[in-house]
Specification:
This protein is an alpha+beta fold. About 20% of the residues lie in helices and about 30% in strands.
């Protein structure tokens, strides 16, 4: 049985998880005990869900599968930790200091993961929020079928205040000035359906208060408004595809998008992954296949390598045939420091084949060339451990992009994320820069020095995702989602 594999990223407190190949099963560690249960505060806690049992289960799984076993502490007393998450963070502290595991190994909910990865099911108001260097909070994206867009809140709206009622609105500037980050997180918390928020927003329609109630909704990987289009750029047909997240429902949406490109003879493509923090590895492989009609089934897409004791799990992924695949002559990938994991996999896999005909437009990517497997706790039914267990390399054995892909691509163009225009609009700065590069017009290369110092020079992003303190599965995959 093949492990269910994942690749995802972390940005600040936003744990952006994972991908699974979906064709095997989930590795299940040996049981750590019975399930007879003990009474705590009037409720029954299964023995396997007791803190020490969960810690023992985590330690056993890490000792068996962790990609960096040499970094694990020689001894670590579980009694010194009040919860399983802090114990796991202590286990990964050395690898984190080495930038190899920036909270990529974490505990999550099996049920929540299955709901999100299978269909995009989540809960909230359905927007991505970001703040800029002036401490202003903006909506960077709003999702179809979700409460915020239904209420008229879309990309580019500035949120200047928020409260449970109009009378209780507190300004964003006040919360940031007093460094009341707990209040800021609480103000946007939407993980329960029925949570009411009143936003004071500023957009093209002026300043107004808008009431939004969080609800269950389904996140579509490709927007029905701008997810796929063919742009006429002075007589050149350029395909544009914006993938929000790598989940199961993306596969057929991508195939349909590429059928459109193929029918119209598209050979130049803009792939917009600027907010895509990761997702299913199987979808990343399919996406890469759709961009590889001129690749043979003997061409390597990626190498997957486990620790030496698990070398039997190593794999080589070759390109596979997709009926709607195209053979692009040039590809411009739009990326930011929120572009991670499965998104980086697609870019990296194509670098050895396209060389200077592949460009990174925008800014540097996050830097996560490793992936997780899922290990479920048989004695505590909703416990799932996502543990970094394997490294990914392209056909040239390039996989050391912990500092992002900007210094690995042969061509790049600096560009801003322009909230004043819709995503995919030809006037939006990153999209316009990508079109110019595809046409052979000049651009400013992303500065190499900032690959190491992220706050320096051209790499410095003007916007950052607002991240949840205790992120849901969807928030791990989609930076800034609320």
């Amino acid at each position: 049985m093949r492990a269910k594999r994942s690749i995802g990223m972390v940005a600040g407190l936003a744990l952006l998880a994972s991908c699974g190949d979906g064709d095997g099963g989930t590795r299940v560690a040996a049981s750590t005990g019975g399930n007879t249960g003990s009474s705590v505060g009037g409720t029954t806690t299964p023995t396997g869900c007791a803190l020490r049992a969960r810690q023992d289960w985590l330690l056993a799984a890490m000792n068996e599968w962790y990609l960096f076993p040499e970094s694990l502490p020689v001894s670590l007393d579980p009694a010194g930790f009040s919860d399983a998450d802090s114990f796991l963070d202590a286990l990964t502290a050395t690898a984190r200091a080495q930038r190899k595991d920036r909270y990529f190994t974490y505990l999550t909910s099996l049920r929540e993961e299955n709901a999100y990865y299978s269909s995009g099911a989540t809960v909230g108001i359905g927007v991505r929020l970001a703040w800029d260097s002036s401490n202003r909070v903006f909506v960077s994206e709003a999702y179809e079928g979700a409460p915020a867009l239904t209420a008229g809140i879309d990309r580019g709206a500035q949120i200047v205040g928020v409260g449970a009622t109009a009378a209780s609105i507190r300004t964003i500037s006040d919360m940031l000035a007093s460094r009341d980050y707990d209040a800021l997180n609480e103000a946007f918390y939407s993980a329960r359906p029925g949570t009411v928020h009143v936003f004071r927003i500023v957009d093209a329609n002026g300043t107004r208060d808008v009431s939004v109630t969080s609800a269950d909704y389904t996140l579509s990987p490709l927007s029905s408004r701008y997810g796929v289009k063919v742009i006429d750029d002075n007589g050149r047909k350029v395909g544009y595809v914006n993938l929000r997240t790598f989940i199961n429902t993306a596969d057929d949406q991508l195939r349909s998008a590429f059928a459109t490109f193929k029918a119209q003879g598209v050979t130049q493509v803009i792939v917009d992954l600027r907010y895509n923090g990761g997702g299913l590895l199987s979808t990343a492989e399919t996406f890469t296949d759709l961009l590889g009609a001129n690749r043979s089934t003997g061409d390597v897409q990626a190498y997957t390598t486990f620790r030496p004791s698990k070398a039997q799990e190593n794999e080589v992924r070759y390109f596979a045939r997709e009926m709607n695949a195209i053979a692009p002559t040039r590809i411009a990938f739009i990326g930011t420091d929120q572009t991670a994991s499965a998104s980086e996999y697609v870019i990296n896999a194509l670098i050895p084949y396209l060389h200077g005909d592949l460009a990174l437009v925008g800014g540097n990517t996050y830097g996560k060339p490793v992936g997780q497997i899922a290990i479920d706790n048989p004695s505590c039914s909703d416990d799932r451990l996502r543990v970094i267990a394997f490294a990914l390399q392209n056909s040239a054995r390039q996989g050391d992009y912990y500092n992002g892909l900007a210094t690995k691509v042969e061509a790049s163009c600096q560009a801003a994320d322009d909230y004043a225009h819709p995503l995919g609009d030809v006037s939006e700065t990153s999209t316009r820069t990508a079109l110019d590069w595809l046409a052979g017009r000049g651009c400013t290369r992303i500065g190499a020095s900032a690959a190491v110092t992220r706050t320096a020079g051209l790499f410095a992003p003007s916007q950052h995702p607002l991240v949840a303190t205790n992120p849901t599965v969807a928030q791990r995959e989609t930076p800034g989602l609320y």
